[in-house]
Design goal:
CATH topology of chain A: Alpha-Beta Plaits
Mean pLDDT of chain A: 91
Number of helices of chain B: 13
Strand order of the largest sheet of chain A: 1-2-5
CATH class of the largest domain in chain B: Alpha Beta
Distance between the termini of chain A: 9 Å
Strand content of chain A: 25-35%
Number of domains of chain B: 3
CATH class of chain A: Alpha Beta
Order of helices and strands of chain A: EEHEEHE
Low-confidence stretches of chain B: none
Order of helices and strands of chain B: EHEHEHEHEEHEHEHEEHHEEHEEHEHEH
Low-confidence stretches of chain A: none
Structural class of chain A: mainly beta
CATH architecture of the largest domain in chain B: 3-Layer(aba) Sandwich
Oligomer: heterotrimer
Chains: A mainly beta, B alpha/beta, C alpha/beta
């Protein structure tokens, strides 16, 4: 179903096959870099630690986040719900 | 007097006129000597499906009438000196966000708690400069009961036409006066309503100057989802700090009233044709001045009166002309010279200004004015 | 499933002005999801706010939005609600805005039990003015105006709201966005005055003075102080010192029933006023 998800074009996007509970599933993760302020809340909250902070010289506080391995996502939505800047979309 | 005449108090007339002007919301806080207006509104509004609410303080009362007006309901509050001071920040908000509403101030002695039950004209300057920043002002000063009715309706019309809060300034004795009067026929009333946008929501800007200095106003919940703020804003209603936009917006605000002055100023000449001595007066003091003029005329003194039914804005050109012509000008006021100071500026030493300033709470007697007329000779 | 926040936002105003990691954005999101949960039409909602960091939120929401004067949001909202009782009013306020300068309006809106929802984002400090102490800055903590440690006692906003007559009161932290969403949704559904307090981080102003100047450590501090209501009931007073009780403050517990019998919200204000109009017009 993630193929049908229309994440806006200005979002970076990662697609992967994942396992949610006992079921096979697909995930589509969208990330809006321009809106990201690099606060690191998603990095802190992710139970699988698949977000990481990286340096970004164009940003006010010098950092943004990056997805390391979308296939580990368990779709807990913690990052999406707690991103204060409307930058993450998990489908 | 027609058979239909009945007794009205000034306070009741404010309430009646407000409802006849289409006012359907009153938010207030009790304060002497204006509380009767709240009492009348609490009785009359439910009868016409309107809402009366007594708020926890003066500030909240001012907030509610701005909120109700944004939701499309004409609204009124009444207060007196100290309450008027408390309302000033939100009055400034109404100027900035261009929200029509009417504030009736039944004036009492000040500063501070002052003379709560006594007559004064203490807030003439507070009406003009009470809130911080520059803004246009319309303030009306009725002197007779019939005039309270007429000018209250006018106050609502001005607020709707120019999208500003309008001050209705009553002397304590005017609000508490009772007499049998005839009111105009309802059909003869001219009632103005705010101009609504003619464009669909996606093309609407709340402060769009393309339609003149007074932008059309969409009410809340009518499909025009826009933002209202007290911050300096651009035509979209969102905050801006662009110096040019802020400057232009402030100038437009002032223009709304300044360029329409001729349609707003309202005054009455009494025996002015050959007058050498001119009295400038407003509100209750004008009634004493009128008696003084009559008495002086009996002894052949050429004296006349210019009475302001609208105190802000003043009819500048007329005052300037009179200042050049009159031998002397007398300004009786129930304050320490709030209008006289302004007249003095217009006169610019061309003529003598005689002040009568009573702040003891007792009305100025015609004799007090008569004595000054003799002094001026 | 990702939520389509774009549906409710003025996207041309995003990114918003709040600091990186500020909790207000999380509360705003929970509120937008709640709007979806109750299915309100955007044209029928008015978001009202006062002054402060939190109060900038309505500017980002594509509704009838009203950014008023400091502390007075509830009075403006009362005017809007009384003028149009069938519309939905949501007030967004900070702790200083709601309980200091707006404290009078706060308790009286609770007393009137007027049908609207107040979301208070409590970050324990005045953020926008540069980090001065607020009525919720805990004792002993430092701010720009309590550099020797705060001695100014605090309000518990939920207890205040409940005592004043609000008919739904709840508190959650910004660490638990789903819980916030649940409470705000319940607040929207409640016919009466609802107060939802969101305990939030201000690492920029409050954290900076108290050795937690990044969002993560500030959020951990909030977590360390949080005690769920049910657990708190089993604890001793001394153990609850410097803790923040979260949960719904309206339950069927015996003690609550006792206080509600004594001082419960009588009616919702706009409904009561509609009855007055009906009665007067019948005559």
């Amino acid at each position: 179903m993630s193929d049908k998800i229309n994440i806006p074009e200005h979002y970076e996007r990662w697609d992967a096959d994942v396992k949610v509970g006992k079921n096979d599933d697909k995930v589509a993760i969208g990330y809006w870099r321009d809106g990201c302020k690099g606060c690191g809340i998603c990095v802190d909250l992710c139970p699988k630690k698949i977000w990481e902070l990286i340096e970004a010289k164009d940003k006010w506080n010098g950092q943004v986040v990056r997805m390391t391995d979308a296939s580990k996502c368990i779709k807990c939505m913690l990052c999406e719900i707690h991103c204060p800047d409307f930058c993450l979309k998990i489908y | 007097m027609k058979k239909s005449a009945r007794f009205y108090s000034g306070a009741e007339l404010v309430a009646k006129a407000a409802i006849d002007a289409g006012c359907r919301f009153y938010g207030g806080y009790p304060i002497t000597p204006s509380s009767e207006i709240a009492e009348f509104m609490s009785v009359m509004l439910p009868k016409v499906g309107g809402t009366y609410v007594q708020m926890e303080d003066e500030i909240a009362a001012m907030g509610t009438i701005i909120g109700a007006s944004l939701a499309g309901v004409k609204s009124l509050t009444a207060t007196s000196g100290p309450g008027f001071s408390l309302k000033q920040e939100n009055i400034g908000y109404a100027y900035m966000a261009e929200v029509p509403c009417v504030i009736c101030n039944v004036m009492r002695g000040g500063p501070s708690t002052g003379l709560p039950t006594a007559l004064a004209q203490a807030d003439i300057m507070q009406a003009k400069w009470g809130t911080h920043g520059d803004h246009p002002v319309i303030a009306l000063t009725p002197a007779y009961l019939e005039e309270i009715y007429e000018l209250t309706i006018k106050a609502f019309n001005f607020s709707e036409i120019y999208r500003i809060p309008v001050m209705l300034m009553l002397d304590e004795v005017i609000a508490h006066l009772s007499a049998a009067i005839n009111l105009p026929e309802k059909e003869s009333l001219v009632i103005k309503d705010r101009r609504k946008p003619s464009v669909p929501p996606e093309k609407y800007f709340p402060y769009d100057t393309a339609y003149g200095d007074v932008p059309p106003m969409a009410n809340f919940f009518e499909g025009y989802r826009y933002h209202v703020t007290g911050l300096s804003h651009d035509k979209t209603g969102f905050p801006t700090t662009d110096p040019e936009l802020v400057q232009a917006d402030q100038e437009r605000h002032l223009r709304k009233v300044n360029w329409k002055k001729n349609e707003i100023v309202d005054y009455e000449y009494y025996l002015m044709k050959d007058a050498e001595i001119v009295i400038f007066a407003y509100g209750s003091t004008a009634r004493a001045a009128r008696v003084a003029v009559d008495n002086a005329r009996k002894s052949g003194i050429k004296v006349g009166m210019m009475r302001f039914r609208v105190i802000w804005p003043l009819p500048e050109a007329e005052i300037l002309k009179l200042c050049g012509r009159a031998k002397a000008i007398i300004v009786p006021e129930m304050n320490m010279g709030q209008l006289s100071d302004v007249i003095e500026r217009y006169a610019a030493d061309r003529t003598k200004i005689i002040r009568i300033n009573h702040v003891g709470g007792v009305p100025i007697h015609p004799t007090d004015i008569h004595n000054k007329i003799r002094e001026a000779l | 499933m990702a939520f389509e926040y774009e549906k409710y936002l003025r996207m041309d105003k995003i990114p918003h002005l709040w600091c990186p990691g500020c909790g207000i954005g999380i509360v705003l999101k929970a509120m937008l999801r709640s709007v979806e949960n109750v299915g309100w039409d955007k044209n029928d909602i008015s978001f009202v706010s006062g002054i402060g960091c939190t109060s900038r939120a309505p500017g980002y929401i594509d509704c009838n939005t009203l950014h008023t004067t400091h502390g007075r949001a509830l009075s403006f909202a009362t005017g809007v609600k009384l003028a149009k009782p069938d519309k939905n009013l949501v007030v967004f306020s900070g702790d200083g805005d709601a309980t200091a300068i707006g404290g009078n309006h706060f308790i009286h809106a609770c007393r009137r039990n007027i049908d609207m929802t107040l979301v208070v984002v409590n970050n324990n400090v005045y953020g926008m003015t540069g980090g001065q102490h607020s009525p919720t800055t805990p004792i002993g903590y430092k701010t720009n105006t309590t550099i020797y440690g705060n001695i100014d006692p605090t309000f518990d906003i939920c207890l205040l709201a409940k005592a004043a007559g609000a008919s739904y009161v709840a508190r959650a932290t910004v660490n638990k966005g789903r819980v916030l969403e649940k409470y705000i949704t319940k607040g929207f559904q409640n016919k009466g005055f609802s107060v939802i307090v969101a305990t939030a981080n201000c690492h920029t102003q409050f954290g900076r003075k108290n050795k937690m100047s990044d969002p993560i450590s500030s959020r951990k501090w909030i977590e360390s102080r949080e005690i769920p209501l049910e657990k708190a009931r089993t604890m001793k007073a001394a153990e609850l010192k410097d803790k923040v009780i979260t949960g719904e403050f309206t339950t069927d517990e015996a003690e609550t029933t006792f206080w509600e019998n004594y001082n419960s919200p009588v009616h919702e204000y706009t409904e009561a006023y509609a009855k007055i109009i009906e009665k007067v017009q019948e005559k």
